[in-house]
Every structure is written in C-alpha cells, then in structure tokens.
Amino acid sequence: MQDRRSAGAWFSDVGWRLVMLVPLLCGLAGFAAVPSDSRILFTRDTAVPPSVQEFAWRVIETRCNYQRYDRDQRSFWAYDAQARKVDAGVAYSINILSELTRKSTEPPAVIEMTIVDDGRLRLTALKSSFVVCGS
User: What CA–CA distance (Å, rounded) separates 129 from 121?
Assistant: First the structure.
C-alpha cells in the first residue's frame, strides 16, 4: 500500500510541476518571431527580411502559372538566399525549390528571383524551370 501512495504522490508532484510550467512556456512563446504571410520556408538565419519574403510569395502567387489547388499542394523552400548592397539599396537573390508533395515522380520546379529594396520593393529578375513564371 505504501508503494501506491508513493507513486500517487510522485504523479501528483509531476502533475503540479506541469501545471506551473505550462503558463510559463505560453508566456515565453509570446516572444517568438512573428510568422510572415509567406509560404516560402527560409532558414532561421536568413538575410531576407519578412517584408521581402512576403513580396517573394506574392510574386509566386501572381506571376507563376500555378493553379490555386496546385500551389496549395506544393512546398516552397528557399535553398539559397543572399543579400548584397547595390547603389540604391539592397538586392536579394532568392532561389526557391517547389515540390509537389503528393507526386514524388514529378521533378521539383526551381524559381530564381531578384528583389531590390530601395525604399520600395521591386522585382528585377525572375526565372523558372518546370513552371512558367512571367515578369
């Protein structure tokens, strides 16, 4: 009988600690980075700011020939993103891999774009393979 009480007390102690820990973790979660409206997955340490990431996603939505359903079924990964200073601001070169998750036989599409931030965001280059993207 003594063992059951010990086990019950142990579980009660662990449960109490969890009850105290959950609000603390929820409070800390409030300090996490704000997600952007971009569906392109960038590395955590990317040099591309959220506003440029969102603009890059809008370029894919409006200039690449994906049907909405097809676009929703795809994953988009920024496998190479670089920033460099230019005369008027910063140029971001972003290479994106787009894979269709439901069909592994289809080759991934590659989208390459350059976005310049000189006080306003503008697309200066757009190239793609396996999907038509127009500038």
Answer: 24
3-state secondary structure of 74: strand
Does domain 40-129 bear CATH number 3.10.450? yes
- Report d(CA 10, CA 18) in Å as an integer: 12
Tell me the pLDDT tens digit for each residue of 105-122: 778 899 999 999 999 999
Burial of 99 (0-12, 13-18, 19+ CB in 10 A): middle
Q: Give residue 132's Cα distance to chain centre.
A: 22
pLDDT of residue 89: 95
DSSP string, 81-130: EEEEEETTEEEEEEEEEEEETT-TTSPPEEEEEEEEESSSEEEEEEEEES
